[in-house]
Amino acid sequence: MKWIGLTGGIATGKSTVKNKLVSLNIPVIDADMISHEITQAGGLGYEQIVSHFGKDILNADQSLNRKQLGDIVFNDAQKLLKLEQILHPIIQAEVQTRKKKHYEAGEAFCFYDVPLLYEKKLEAQFDQIVLVYAPVTTQVERIMVRNNLTHTQALARINAQLPMSQKINRAHHCLDNSTNQDDLNLQVLNLVNVLKSK
Questions:
Q1: Where in the sequence of the chain do the CATH 3.40.50.300 domains occur?
Q2: N or C: which end of the chain has fewer CB within 10 A?
Q3: Would you state the pLDDT for residue 35?
Q4: 3 state DSSP class of 175
Q5: How many Å from the N-terminal Cα to the C-terminal Cα in the chain?
């Protein structure tokens, strides 16, 4: 089974690509989704985050206030590192469990949707890497609308990641999401055909 890394910058349209792949019955393991699951109240990650960052980051219903936690870690590199040290091992264990299931099911390839693939130096883990990219101005606009953030807050999230130019040079396949969804979907179909032909 080919193990393919799916990555991109924040708000470049990676989720759109993931959803298209899933609609084509291609297995995709989503790091963010796993992270979300383990940080729900009662989850392994939730307990450790609250223990480290304190109960001030909880909503009234005891769920994590993700926006508040984001504001804390995206403005302090040490706190971001601590959050990653909490979550990364738990996420990795779950990824390996799901990967093994797809391998045993006889899948030809499986995508792993991981936003910080390059930042975390995970390249060597993959047979191939697919990058979804868009102009920074587009990223900023999308983040501001999607997360209800200011221009400065949006830019801080983008700047916490490697510059897109560095990622493009290192990917095996690049999907350009600077136009529209139909065009992006077509690029995904072409990518799948290329992967199947190899």
A1: 1-27+108-192
A2: C
A3: 93
A4: strand
A5: 12
